[in-house]
């Protein structure tokens, strides 16, 4: 039979039936999408759990934090200084650090190195301190001393498990070395060296349980780092000085030997020099100068001689020759000749040519001319002699020059070797001078060494511990508490397997929720049966739920009239029998002639609840032993007819699939307006599915937030396979106040808003 949606408006029920809207996108525990209302609903219903778990975790976290040993941190600020003091212009042996990023990072590693930690352990004797050396007994009984004692016990147990041979092989020196390494590693774990951003500043932090020691260790490590830098520079300078000193000794010997070889070779080869040149070269220079002068003088003399000869050969008397003109003798003879010629001229004016005085004058003139010619020839002859002498001197000088040139050639050949020796000596001398200068500079620079880093701010004794930080610890405790509370809520939601409302029913079972039947409080029931409570307080919320259930079932199928209604459940103890009784009771109160059948042949709880033991019941009617009217029990208050099951009679036969059962149902349909059948649980008894197929509507009852949804799903599958007309699901024993905290899709969510409309007894 096809299922039809419930027409609640036609049923005239408001506020007690559940909507049939599908919320397939909502998971059973955690929504697939963020639904604020769902989150609020989860928070409302799990507030107590979250508060308890969060409070417990917060208290535990605070307790643990308060038990932690306080840790103090001393911090020193260093800077790798890019500025270098230059007192004198002397290059250092070990150059300063270039303050680039890689160098600063390298210095960070050096500060945190094993070597500096080892020196700090020795300087401060940390091996005798129980904080750093676990082998030293610690007299302090701090809050966490038991942890340290437990660790020592575990360590001792592990050492006990080591083979005895290995223990025997470990000498006292090895044990001391191991203890020292353990102390160093403990200190290194307490040291944090980091660079401040991209600057040249390095932060050196040391953690300790004592504030004074934290500052002492931080300052000590920074001082050791600076001392280590200076020692490295001093060692480099000392090593350079030692090497330079040895090298200078060797170079001095080499310089002396080289210079001695140059002088010996110069003396052997006659390469004595003056003013940078050899004697031979100087002599050749001098001879060449003389040769040039002689050649010029010879040329001049030859020129004068040639001029004199040309005059003589040309008929002249040589008076134009320079030597003649410059001769004093010639000048005197000419003066005499001039005087005589004047005298002749004077005499000629008075005497004739034959006059003795004139003849005398003429003879004097002739004698003077002869003397003049003879003097001129003597001068020319002297020129010839001078030219001859000059030629001889030039020839002799040229011979000397030629001899010196041969000597120079021999000297030049020897100079090749001499220059080679000189170069070697000069090279050794230059190298010696360079090393000597550097040696003096390094000696001076040793007193000017400075570290490449400097301390900006020394560590002061910390007042407050860096661990645990109360604000951070409180925040962490709150975070842990929040996470724990949220996790507890999440787990609780995931572990819930029951059905809580219309959304769960429609999503898990694919059918509508007919109603939510409230749990009847014990103080209101006061020993009364739920059906009696409905009869006595018909306007209560409990009675209203069954009105809604009857309306939903009545209009669940508009194609045909709904008279026979079966109330069943998947498991026992779901409130099925009470629900069937209450449904029949409310139907009778609404004016419909109603009968209630107890078809639970195994436990027949309905019959037991009536409190009236009958010898005859349903089985006897079906067997034809008694008529129907004789087996009925009528409620005197409401007139509800009940067909019980006699407790003394049970049968293994399939009575519900028999013709007698069909005949009984047909008879009841003619006599009653509404028939309610209470059956056994579906998963426990197979005969229920047979009976369900004969009804007009089947109500699947499930206990609110308790019955496993898979069990209900299995029961629904059984009814579907039997072609039973399932009208929907009703939730029983619902805590209405609690249901209001589950989602916003159910009418129960607004229960507190409309519960005052009910009159509770």
Summarize the structure.
With 761 residues, this protein is an alpha/beta fold.
Task: Show the helix and strand layout.
Blueprint: H1 8-11, H2 36-45, H3 47-67, E1 72-80, H4 101-111, H5 114-124, H6 145-160, H7 164-169, H8 172-190, E2 191-195, E3 201-208, H9 211-269, E4 273-274, E5 277-278, H10 279-313, H11 322-325, H12 328-348, H13 356-445, E6 453-457, H14 470-495, H15 502-509, E7 513-518, H16 522-525, H17 530-536, H18 541-554, E8 564-569, H19 576-589, E9 594-598, H20 605-610, H21 618-623, H22 628-631, E10 633-634, E11 641-643, H23 659-671, E12 674-678, H24 687-692, E13 697-703, H25 709-721, E14 726-734, H26 736-739, H27 751-754
Parallel strand pairs: 7-14, 8-12, 8-13, 9-11, 9-12, 13-14
Antiparallel strand pairs: 1-3, 1-6, 2-3, 4-5, 10-11
Helix pairs in contact: 3-14, 5-8, 5-9, 9-13, 10-13, 12-13, 17-19, 18-19
Q: Ranges with pLDDT <50 over ≥5 residues?
A: 1-32, 85-90, 139-148
Order of strands, widest sheet: 7-14-13-8-12-9-11-10
Number of strands: 14
Q: Sheet with the most strands?
A: 8 strands, mixed
Assembly type of the shown chains?
single chain
Radius of gyration: 70 Å
CATH topology of the domain at 498-752: Rossmann fold
Q: Overview of this structure, please?
A:
There is one protein chain. The protein is 57% helix and 10% strand. It is α/β, with parallel strands linked by helices and 761 residues long. Among the domains are: 45-68 and 469-493; 277-448; 498-752, Rossmann fold (3-Layer(aba) Sandwich). Strands 7-14-13-8-12-9-11-10 form an eight-stranded mixed β-sheet, with helices on both faces. A four-stranded antiparallel β-sheet has the order 2-3-1-6. The model is unreliable at 1-32, 85-90 and 139-148 (pLDDT under 50).
């Amino acid at each position: 039979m096809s299922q039809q949606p419930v027409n609640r408006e036609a049923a005239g029920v408001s506020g007690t039936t559940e909507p049939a809207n599908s919320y397939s996108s909502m998971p059973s525990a955690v929504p697939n999408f963020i639904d604020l209302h769902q989150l609020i609903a989860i928070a409302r219903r799990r507030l107590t759990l979250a508060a308890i778990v969060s409070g417990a975790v917060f208290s535990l976290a605070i307790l643990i934090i308060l038990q932690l040993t306080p840790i103090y941190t001393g911090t020193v600020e260093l800077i790798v200084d890019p500025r270098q003091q230059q007192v004198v212009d002397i290059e250092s042996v070990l150059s300063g650090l270039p303050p680039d990023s890689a160098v600063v990072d390298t210095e960070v590693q050096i500060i945190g190195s094993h070597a500096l930690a080892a020196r700090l352990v020795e300087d401060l004797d940390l091996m005798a301190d129980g904080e750093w050396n676990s082998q030293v007994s610690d007299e302090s009984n701090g809050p966490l001393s038991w942890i340290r004692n437990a660790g020592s016990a575990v360590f001792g147990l592990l050492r006990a498990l080591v083979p005895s041979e290995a223990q025997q092989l470990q000498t006292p020196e090895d044990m001391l070395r191991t203890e020292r390494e353990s102390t160093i590693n403990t200190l290194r774990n307490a040291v944090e060296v980091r660079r401040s951003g991209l600057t040249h500043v390095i932060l050196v932090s040391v953690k300790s349980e004592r504030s004074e020691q934290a500052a002492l260790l931080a300052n000590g490590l920074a001082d050791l780092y600076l001392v280590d830098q200076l020692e490295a520079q001093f060692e480099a300078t000392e090593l350079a000085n030692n090497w330079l000193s040895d090298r200078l000794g060797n170079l001095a010997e080499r310089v002396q030997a080289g210079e001695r070889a140059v002088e010996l070779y110069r003396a052997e080869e006659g390469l004595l020099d003056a003013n940078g040149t050899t004697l031979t070269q100087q002599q050749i220079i001098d001879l060449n100068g003389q040769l040039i002068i002689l050649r010029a003088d010879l040329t001049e003399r030859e020129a004068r001689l040639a001029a004199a000869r040309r005059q003589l050969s040309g008929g002249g008397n040589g008076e134009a020759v320079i030597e003649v003109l410059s001769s004093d003798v010639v000048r005197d003879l000419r003066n005499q000749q001039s005087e005589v010629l004047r005298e002749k001229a004077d005499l000629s004016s008075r005497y004739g040519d034959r006059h003795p005085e004139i003849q005398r004058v003429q003879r004097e003139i002739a004698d003077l001319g002869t003397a003049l010619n003879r003097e001129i020839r003597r001068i020319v002859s002297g020129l010839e002699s001078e030219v001859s002498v000059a030629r001889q001197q030039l020839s002799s000088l040229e011979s000397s020059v030629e001899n010196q040139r041969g000597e120079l050639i021999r000297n030049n050949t020897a100079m090749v070797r001499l220059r080679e020796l000189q170069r070697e000596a000069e090279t050794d001398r230059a190298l010696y001078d360079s090393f000597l200068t550097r040696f003096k500079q390094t000696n001076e620079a040793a007193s000017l060494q400075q570290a490449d880093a400097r301390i900006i701010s020394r560590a002061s004794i910390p007042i407050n511990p860096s661990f645990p930080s109360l604000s951070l610890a409180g925040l962490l405790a709150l975070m842990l508490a929040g996470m724990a509370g949220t996790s507890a809520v999440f787990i609780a939601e995931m572990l819930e397997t029951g059905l809580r409302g219309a959304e769960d029913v429609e999503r898990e079972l694919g059918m509508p929720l007919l109603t939510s039947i409230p749990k009847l409080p014990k103080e209101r029931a006061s020993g009364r049966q739920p059906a009696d409570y409905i009869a006595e307080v018909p306007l209560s919320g409990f009675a209203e739920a069954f009105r809604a259930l009857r309306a939903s079932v009545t209009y669940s199928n508009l194609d045909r009239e709904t008279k026979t209604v079966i109330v069943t459940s998947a498991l026992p103890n779901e409130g099925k029998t009470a629900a069937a009784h209450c449904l029949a009771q409310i139907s009778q109160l609404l004016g419909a002639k109603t009968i209630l059948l107890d078809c639970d042949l195994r436990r027949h709880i309905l019959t037991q609840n009536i409190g009236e033991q009958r010898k005859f019941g349903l089985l006897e009617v079906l067997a034809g032993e008694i008529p129907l009217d004789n087996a009925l029990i009528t409620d005197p208050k409401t007139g509800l007819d009940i067909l019980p099951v006699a407790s003394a009679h049970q049968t293994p036969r399939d009575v519900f699939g028999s013709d007698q059962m069909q005949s009984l149902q047909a008879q009841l349909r003619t006599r009653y307006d509404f028939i309610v059948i209470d059956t056994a649980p579906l998963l426990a008894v197979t005969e229920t599915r047979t009976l369900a197929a004969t009804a007009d509507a089947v109500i699947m009852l499930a206990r609110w937030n308790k019955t496993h949804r898979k069990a209900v799903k299995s029961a629904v599958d059984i009814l579907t396979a039997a072609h039973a007309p399932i009208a929907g699901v009703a939730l029983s024993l619902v805590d209405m106040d609690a249901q209001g905290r589950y989602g916003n899709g159910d009418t129960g969510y607004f229960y507190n808003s409309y519960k005052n409309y009910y009159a509770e007894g």
